[in-house]
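TL;DR need structure tokens for one chain.
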Amino acid sequence: MQETATQNEALIRQFEKIRSFTEELCAPLMVEDYVPQPVYFASPPKWHLAHTTWFFEEMILRRNDASYVLFDADFGYLFNSYYNHVGERTLRADRGNMTRPSVDRVYEYRQYVNEHVAFYLQNDPVPEEVLALVQLGLQHEQQHQELLITDLKYTLGHNPLFPVYHPDAVRSEGKNESSGWIKMDEGIYTIGHDQDGFSFDNEGRRHQVFLHEYEISNNLVTNGEYLEFINSGGYSDFRNWLDEGWAWVNENQVKSPLYWHFIEGEWHHYTLGDSNPSTGRLRFVT
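>> reply
TL;DR here they are.
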């Protein structure tokens, strides 16, 4: 019994830590930043906050806690995503149209669900299948933390003012310390998750695959190297592209990476960090 209680307490602490971090990511935002959806594939921060909360309400509380009362009956429709078996949902492209509920209301929703999940997890014992769902929900939330930042960069990076998300946002200034290629021999390799810890279903089962011989660079492409690619006509030479990529480049008139901007004869790029004092809002590509 004591061991089970200790495990539950550890899970509650993990739950609270991960849930809090999502809100920490949103702390630098202005209220207006929570709503815009400039393209269908970039969801607003408010939606991410509510959707991850809906998962715990729908999968944990509503299905396993008989005393639980829904925070708002409309939220299931508003904040479901692709869970077809759960019910109807709003269209993905319409997530930015939700000026209501308010941001404050969504934070109230998070607090309400957090308190009820923490209280539920104090039960002894909590069914193993529910504990597994909580862990899945936490992994799901961490996925959305990455998506939140990725989507936010698209929104802010297409704002004509190129606003700073956070002045201390980390970005690498370094260059590659090594060069060369890693050679992989032709053969049969075993891949897939086979440990006791969490994994998503598409990471298993352990199985074998055949690979042809290949080589891969042992360092990342730098902005400076990519600038050489652009200046050498990389976007206008079909020999650099497979057919589908070449069609995409021409159809969309792509001339540079997504957050690069050619201004007064110089390439600049947008980051979520503070702007470069020498350029005002963007950084030189180097």
